[in-house]
Amino acid sequence: MEGMEEMQGAVGLRCTWGTQAPAGTQAKWVRLNVGGTVFLTTRQTLCREQKSFLCRLCQGEELQSDRDETGAYLIDRDPTYFGPILNFLRHGKLVLDKDMAEEGVLEEAEFYNIGPLIRIIKDRLEEKNFTVTQVPPKHVYRVLQCQEEELTQMVSTMSDGWRFEQLVNIGSSYNYGSEDQTEFLCVVSKELYSSSNGLSSEPSHKAKVRP
Question: pTM of the predicted model, to two decimals?
Answer without folding.
Answer: 0.50
